[in-house]
Amino acid sequence: MADLRTLFSSNDPVDSAEAFTNRQQQWTLVATAVEEHLRAVAAPGFDVEDLEAPRTNVIAFHGVGGVGKTTLLRKLEASLAAADQRPRQWGTGLGAGERLLPVRIDLSRSASTGSDFERVVLTIRLALAGAVGLPMPGFDLALRRYWDAQHPGEPLEEYIRRTGLMGKVGQLLPGQLGEAVGQIAGALQLPGLVGSAAGQVATALVTALRERREQARALAGAARTAALLEAEPDLEALSYYPHLLAWEISRLPAKKALVPVVLLDTFEDTADRHRDLERLLQRLVWLMPNCFFVIAGRNRLAWGENALEGELDHTGPLAWPHLAPRGQQPAQTAGGARQHLLGDFSPADCDHYLASRLTRDGAPLIPAEIRAIITERSHGLPLHLDLAVARFLEIRRTHRTPAPADFDHTFPALIARTLSDLTPDERHVLRSASLLDAFDVDLATQAAGLTHQAPARRLVERPMISEDPYAIWPYHLHGAIRAALRTDDTHTPDRWTDADWHRAAVRALTALGEQWRHTHTPAQDRAWLVACLRQGLRLARDHCLDDLGWLTDAAFAYTDDSVWEPIAPPARARDAAAGEGADTPADALTDLLTAISRRQHEHRAHTARRLATVLEGGLLSDELTQLARYYLAKADKDLGRTAASLHGMQQVAAAGGRLASQAQRGIANLARIAGDFPAALAAASTLTWKSRRHRVRGDILWPQGDFAAATQALLDGRAEAEQHAAPGERAIAQTRLAVVTAFTDPARAAEEIALARQYLEPLDQRATVLHVHVAALIADAGSTGRDINDRAAVLRTQIDVAGLPWLIPLLETALAFHHAARDDQDELTATLNRLDQATAGGDFAYYLDIAHFMAGRPLPRPSRTHWLAPEETVRERWHDLVTARRRQRGSGR
Question: Cross-referenced InterPro entries, in alphabetical order (predicted)?
Fold first, then answer.
């Protein structure tokens, strides 16, 4: 059908057509269901008068307003009527040898309960009148009797002409009804009665059927015909007449035989507003088991659930096995579920739709860059695409060339379609939920400030809400609708003010904090923490909430264990466009946590600059300032800026806050880096579990060559990490243990290295991963070939890219161990020279001493290292290690 709105939009017409895409899956579902229905109807045991058999003659599609349900049903109608009307990708194999009669009925036109159901029944009968061309005596007599009783003085043909039902085909029905009444009158030998005497003919037919006259049963032989004709001809009786129509369809001559496929569109206008009308429509479906029904609406069809028992005639999974909720279908159900969510278009399909919607000389009229922005803002919702096309035409009508910026927004019409069938409480919950990336019923209820969950429970059943049962919060609002509510909700009568949105954001932030603190299990701690942080930071940032509350505690909890999941919420549009920095405490906290987590993926110099910028902004609380200062000191340590690192650690320790003990650990590590092991050990003695006391002690002991004591310390550290469910610290302790074991027992080191890699697999610890690679080199020291040199060269590059120069001395020490064990003096000399350069500033100079001890060479200059044991003892331990490795490898000259 031509798009008349496009045609009349300007004096410069363009080619337009109804575009349709991305619905092949739905066609396959319908085609499969219809094929199953055809087989069921043709089966020998099928009985159209069986009122107890489960019904499988329905398939239902649901989805948000504007997702394309009506377009799909129109395309199904055309495709079922004629194979050449189907999209090419749909194929042509449906219903071979069967004649299908599609009948599409739009229920959105309902004016009142009774007249709408009358229209449904008449539409189906009118379609049969045009397709079959024969009267259906039993049903037609009942319908004529009903019409005379309920519409006195209004001829059926006048009603059909006035309402425009079925066009010219509609004029066939009154004649067929009169012919049906005449046939029955003639068969009963009632010559004085004509079509206008339907009531008298019905009485005579009932008498004949009661007397079992063959001529009466031949014309209207359904078992319940007499009872239906005796009943008062009111709306209730009309709802049972489809039983007669189904019987008549089943007795059509072979040349006229067909299978009606009734497509009921906009079903939410009956199911949600008028349960009485839904009861009548469900009764029609139940009483016509030889017809197939395709139902489309915004919400799931609830017939397969027990919740509506008493409101509808037939409910539950036994009555409608294909419509039952997931997990409640009877075991013997064949064919699978028949409830399907109509999904959004993919980005590729959005672009195809827009490109084919408006064309000129066969080429897309909407430029690619505009199609891209429309696709992005639509979130795949077809209604948004149609609104954007209309806007494109409107702009062209003003003789201005549309630009991408003209489409970087949402449309108020989306809100109108979304809110039209929600209650006030549901609208309130919907707006509150739009603040959240994902939610559950309790979170949405608290964000809305309600004391009862019923509105939220009803809302999550709507198709605008998607469900992922395996996510932390199972529900999320459709992206296009969420964006529209947040940006264009300015014209609805109950729209929120800025103050309303702010209060809702405060409620949502508080509710997230309550969930993080109280509703999760220990096994979910980390996942809940990160999820709540991401949502909470975005809420606080987007709504300029100065009181960060629980977010401060969550930030410290996030950094307590070294896992480092990405934490930053999506950037605001203004930030991305203008490159603006932090201007609220939430912005500053987001930047802080982003810098801390991203240090695993960028050079430490970038991390240091990010953290310095956050501190210069002055937006953080005192506690969070100490957090930023501590991680800046760690970055300085990694970069070899030991003086700056020591100053920062001393500041944090002196503040006496949450990180004071971790700063003491930093001070102990800096003393070790300077080679002052007694001072380092003294500082380590004051540490606690939170400041990783055992790991620090192990790092101090193994350079002394005291591997047994270092191993025990690291084992204790790993056990303590497991006790406190700290996978990040467990991985670090295990990696240090792998390094120590690699020096002393290369056979067992393979197991420790494998365990360290297993622990690191789910984590994001770049430095620790590199540490494991160094441990593997140490374990392989003394082996033949140049593989170790090649691996070391790769590692050296990776360490440099990561900005972790503190690992270079350890790497060169590992190489010195290898060359000493191989007794390769030239390579050993080259390695010692590189190590001398790497420690020229004084940091990690003890590695140069250790390398000379292993090589059996004198120190190039007086040592600045303060060992825990006499220097000669330490020298002997390391040289003995090389001797043992030579024996193990059977190498050396």
Answer: P-loop_NTPase (IPR027417)
Domain ranges of the chain: 4-15+345-414, 98-272+279-299, 302-340, 421-665, 696-889
Category of 556 on φ-ψ map: left (φ > 0), alpha (ψ -120 to 50) or beta: alpha
Q: Which two tokens stand for residue 254?
A: 């072979």
Query: What would the pLDDT profile of 871-882 be if each residue is shown by its tens digit?
Result: 999 999 999 999
pLDDT (average), residues 157-164: 77
Q: Are 204 and 186 in contact (CB under 8 A)?
A: no
Residue with tokens 């398939």: 59
From CA 740, how far away is CA 714, in angstroms rounded? 9
Handedness of CA 147, 148, 151, 154 (dihedral sign): positive
Two tokens at 280?
Answer: 């009548």
Interatomic CA distance for residues 585 and 583, integer angstroms? 7
pTM: 0.64
Tens of pLDDT, residue by residue over 694-725, are 999 999 999 999 999 999 999 999 999 999 88
pLDDT of residue 787: 86
Q: How confident is the model at residue 179 (pLDDT cuts 50, 70, 90)?
A: confident
Query: What are the CA-CA distances from residue 858 to residues 611, 832, 862 (Å)?
Result: 43, 12, 10
In this structure, the strands spanning 259-265 and 358-360 are unpaired
- Could you please report the per-residue DSSP string of 23-45? -HHHHHHHHHHHHHHHHHHHSTT
Residues 473-492 have pLDDT tens digits of: 999 887 877 887 877 776 67
- CB atoms inside a 10 Å sphere around CB 736: 26
Query: For residue 562, what are its two tokens?
Result: 């070294």
665: helix, coil or strand?
helix
At 96, phi and psi to the nearest 5?
-60, 125
Burial class (CB in 10 A: 0-12, 13-18, 19+), 494: exposed
CATH code for the part of the protein at 696-889: 1.25.40
Long-range contacts of 248-257 (CB under 8 A, 24+ apart): 248/136, 248/137, 248/138, 248/139, 249/48, 249/128, 249/136, 249/288, 249/290, 249/291, 250/48, 250/290, 252/132, 252/134, 256/132, 256/133, 256/134, 257/99
